[in-house]
Design a protein that fits this description.
There is one protein chain. Helix content is 26%, strand content 31%. By secondary structure, it is of the alpha+beta class. Strands 1-2-3-5-4 form a five-stranded mixed sheet, with helices on one face. Strand 4 (70-77) and strand 5 form a beta hairpin.
Length: 107
């Protein structure tokens, strides 16, 4: 009985880490990439760079999906139909270099 309770506790503790969806943007259109982010709020995209290295990052709908010290900033990732699909990912607020306002972009 103790083994079952321990196994259940481990599964429940790992569940939040499995909650975010992972996709390959090179198998999706840019519109599908943006729709996945918009529908789920935050996703992880993993793809291979032109140099053959695996790249991955977390992309978000807006700053509400970032940590308190981060904000959502525009960046690009490759998709099946667009090598520069515009999406948002979290950047540290220190990168603003003295700006008075924190931008609040939304996808």
């Amino acid at each position: 009985m103790i083994k079952i309770a321990l196994a259940l506790a481990l599964v429940l503790a790992a569940s939040p880490a499995l909650a975010i969806s992972r996709y390959n943007p090179l198998a999706m259109s840019c519109q599908s990439v943006r729709a996945a982010i918009h529908n789920q709020g935050a996703v992880i995209f993993r793809y291979t760079s032109p140099r053959g290295l695996p790249l991955y990052d977390r992309y978000v709908r807006n700053s509400n999906y970032c940590d308190a010290t981060d904000y959502a900033e525009w960046t690009t990732i490759p998709s099946k139909d667009n090598p520069r699909c515009r999406v948002l990912n979290c950047q540290n607020i220190d990168n603003l270099d003295g700006m008075f306002f924190i931008p609040h972009y939304s996808l």
